[in-house]
Amino acid sequence: MPGTDALPITITAITKRYGEVFALDGIDLAIRSGEFMTLLGPSGSGKTTLLMALAGFTRPDSGSIRFGDREIVLTPPHQRDVGMVFQNYALFPHMTVAGNVGYPLKLRKVARAEIATRVEQALETVQLGGYGARRVDQLSGGQKQRVALARAIVFGPRILLMDEPLSALDKKLREHMQIELRHLHEKLGMTTVYVTHDQREALTMSDRIAVINHGRLMQLDTPRVIYDRPANRFVADFVGESTFLPVDRSGESVSFAGRQLRVGAPPASAGALLLMIRPERLAVIEGKMPEGLNLFEGRVRELVYQGDTALAAVALADGTEVAVRSGTRSGTAFDRLAVGAAVVLGLHPDDTVLIPYEG
Amino acid sequence: MARPATIPDDGPNAALLRRDALRERRALLGLASPAVVLLMVVMVLPVGWLFYLSLIGEGGGFSMENYARMLESKAYGRIFMTTFHVSFLTTGICILLGYPLAYFLSQLPPRAATLCMLTVLLPFWTSLLVRTYAWLALLQRQGLVNTWAIDLGLWDTPVALVHNLNGTLIGMVHIMLPFLVLPLYAAMKAISGDYTRAAANLGAGPTQAFWHVFFPLSLPGLFAGALIVFVLCLGFFVTPAVLGGGKVIMVSMQITNNIELFFNWGAASALGVVLLAITLLILFAASRLLRLDAVLGGGH
Amino acid sequence: MGWLDRPAGDTQITHRQRLWLYVVAGVIMVLLVAPTVIVIPMSFSASQYLEFPPREWSLRWYENYFGAPEWMQATATSLKAGVLTMLVATPIGTMAAYGLHVSGHWLARHLFILLVTPIMIPVILIAIGVFYALVQFRMVNSLSGLVVAHSILALPLVLIIVGAALKSYDFNQELAARSLGASRLKAFLTVTLPQIRFSVITAALLAFLTSFDEVIVAMFVSGGDNSTLTRNMFNALRDQIDPTIAAISTIMIVVSSTALILAQVFGRAKT
Question: How far does B297 lie from chain A, in Å, by closest CA?
């Protein structure tokens, strides 16, 4: 498969209304050339609507979409030259695998001999070499998914769109395919827009993640930043587990339960703030108090064993509660916790994240 | 919470996008235009013409005399009575026979159901005329039913089973039964078994579960089927004409007579208009009580 | 007889308790099928009175039918009208069903109901309306007038059948085809149509039968050289019971049953 010149996508002020509700509420998004961008959000957030707008199947009420320099928001779908993988694959049951994969080439009037070569090449790229003669109903779910992918890339599109392509697969296969898709992206280099509601999938595969809710862009960042430094409560809540604690603010300094907090990055917004804590970032402190950590004192209320990790619910002095998650390695301080015991928890300043308090 | 939409945004490209969307919706709707044109030409215009004709009297000018004659004449009154009488009876008998049959079919496993369904589909697909003729041959004086009944000792002399109301009813029920069974069967299949199971779990015996739960849920389907049968009976022509022997005169037959025998287009049209009005009224009233387009398989 | 005591339904009611229902349903099913089936052996009866079972077997009624020029002419007319109706109603109906299904226009639902009304309003009205119009244009007793009228009667069936097929069809495939570069028309022809083709064929068969079996419109609109088979049969029935009709009926039953079985086979053989 020849490397393609990928195209950047520029989305400006896209709005789509259904009756009383905004499915897309003025989204601006710039996707870089060759980037793997994931649109992440709950169902009904607008992420699929946005993907459909890129494909041309949903016409926005207003806004601009550019592929490279070209404005394409008014272009019909069959002239957009993007590859698309649907959630249920949408393979044509009345054609063979080769028929499916060769379909876009036939439409583009490619010579028959060349179609055969390119189809086989595409199938080999997805590790289904030689499957051309098979019928669609003879394939497993994972194989169907790969044929759908082969069909979407065989004509060398410069943009690839994927609508939750792995959601119908079982867990093991899904995790395997996530890595395979990532490798494929690196090999082929086309700009990829990927829609999912699974935050783990998004964190695994993406160059950048656009978190979307109620038709609006909540945060646009790399996976690490999205997870470590969520910009608002929704992102903190949707991606990973989190506990929120109210904090007092005076100017630039923030304090909890009377004690000033050491913060890795200063608060980004003015106004009231919340402290966001990831359960796995809290450490159980025994013995000597370490320097430089933010400390919280409380009592263990409940312990839940979950196999590879365990969760402890700790009630703090002022009545609020935090969750602490740790591996279940034997002999650690966490392992020695018992219900009712007093405990001191430590939090690194870089893990002390402040988000705006939204009322 | 999602922001509720307010005044339309006029963002970039908004006007162009709006026009494009409208153009596409209209173009797709336009695919139905040959059908609509055909409908206009073949149905709407001629029927409109007839309506116009019904308002023209013997003398050639505008007149309501055709309708007046209908209201005064006892013969017309009898014809309408007969038509409604036959339609009600046919619908009633179809319900009595069709409901158990539909229920039986709905309880069968898939393979048996398809096989038994053929007994309903076969007459449905067989020509109306052929079925009417079959009953004529069977019910005539020297026909099969009389011969067998006499052989079995049920009665002594051939009974007039045809060329009267009884024959007409038998024929019409036979024709109309599939029209009731098919929608009713579909409605029954759509009733989840969980409802009956829940009733049983709560203490209802099989008969109670049926009458308290299944039967009420099947009523919309029954209503739809009965409606179709009734409306079809109102306008029915072939079977009453052949099996009624001239003693059962329904509206459609009178219309035909007015044209073929009396060349009275005014009277025929007026009668036709009244029949159409009654039919449309019944359909309209029913569609208010029941989503008719869902039964017939609407656009979306 | 062990099966009698096994459960037959969701309430665990046994077959034995439902026996009465099975008997009643069985009787009704027999009564539904028997009349048409009995016509077949009756048509081979030598006697004028169509005995069952026939005391003497004979092909005389078939000879009457095939030997009579009027019957043959009428059959040819009916077949021609049927095929032409099928060729007119099926494409127009399929196009309309597709357009109304995907349009998203608020008018679509209303147009659908409008196009389906011909099967609900009394056919006699369409018959005399078309007859009157054709009289004005001096087109009575013409094949084209008949085909046009029959097409409007067949159209609702095509719409309902194709409409149902489109509702259960996965439209993502058409979207996929369009994303791969096919225009709407091409996507429909290469991807959607092949998958709903069995429903389209069933609709076409029903359109043919609608025209072939139709009596009332034919009674008014056809005549003379262009009289249809059904018209002649109806007139014969009104006068006296000509046993030739039994022979014709048998042939028509065979034709309808074949069409029905074909439609069932096609309907099952979906890929």
Answer: 25
Contacts of residue A104 in chain C, CB cutoff 8 Å?
A: 180-181
- Best interface-test mutation with A: which of C178, C179, C184, C196 has the largest number of A CBs within 10 A? C179
A276 to chain B, minimum CA–CA distance in Å?
A: 22
Location of structure tokens 């209320």: A301
**Which residue in the set A26, A61, A214 is minimally distant from B17, CB to CB?**
A61
Interface test with C, best of B56, B125, B131, B265 (most C CBs within 10 A): B125
Q: Does B21 touch chain A (CB under 8 A)?
A: yes
Which one of A82, A92, A94 has the shortest CB-CB distance to C179?
Answer: A82
Query: Is the domain of C54 the same as that of C72?
Result: no
**Interface-testing mutation among A72, A86, A138, A163, with chain C (most C C-beta atoms within 10 A):** A86
Other Cβ atoms closer than 10 A to B149 = 15
Answer yes or no: do C15 and C82 share one domain. Answer: no
B51: exposed, middle or buried (Cβ count in 10 Å: 0-12, 13-18, 19+) = middle
In total, chain A counts a number of residues equal to: 359
Q: Which residues of B touch A215 (CB under 8 A)?
A: 2-3
* Band of residue B185 on the pLDDT scale cut at 50, 70, 90: very high
Could you tell me if C184 and C209 lie in one domain? yes
Find where tokens 């009916």 sit: C78
Domains in chain B and their CATH numbers?
A: 76-295 (1.10.3720.10)
Chain B residue nearest residue C133, CA to CA: B46
C23 shares a domain with C102: no
Question: pTM of the entire structure?
Answer: 0.82
Please give, rounded to a whole number of angstroms, the shortest distance from the CA of A118 to a CA of chain B.
Answer: 35
| CA nearest to C82, candidates C259, C270, C262, C265 | C259
Q: Does B63 touch chain C (CB under 8 A)?
A: no
Hey, which of A207-221, B209-223, B249-263 has the most confident mean pLDDT? A207-221
Q: Which of C15, C41, C60 is the C-terminal boundary of a domain?
A: C60
Are C53 and C142 members of one domain? no
Say yes or no: C41 and C146 in one domain: no
Q: Tell me, what CATH number does C133's domain have?
A: 1.10.3720.10
First and final C-alpha spacing in chain B: 29
Cross-chain residue pair B32–C111, CB shorter than 8 Å:
yes
Residue type for position A249: R
Residue C13: give the domain boundaries. Answer: 2-60
Same domain, C78 and C197: yes
- Residue C251, both tokens: 């042939």
- Nearest-CA distance A161 → chain C (Å): 10
Residues C48 and C71 in one domain: no
Is A107 in the C-facing interface, judged by CB distances under 8 Å?
yes
Quick one: what percent of chain A has pLDDT higher than 90? 75
User: Does A57 contact chain C (CB < 8 Å)?
Assistant: yes
Euclidean distance between CA atoms A197 and A40, whole angstroms: 5
Q: What is the largest CA-CA distance in chain C?
A: 71
Rounding to the nearest 10 degrees, give the CA dihedral for residues C168, C170, C175, C178: -90
pLDDT digits (tens, 9 = 90+) for B191-226: 888 888 888 888 888 888 889 889 998 998 999 899
- B2 and chain C: CB distance < 8 Å anywhere? no
The total number of structural domains in chain C stands at 2
Structural contact between residues A207 and A193, judged by C-beta atoms closer than 8 angstroms: no
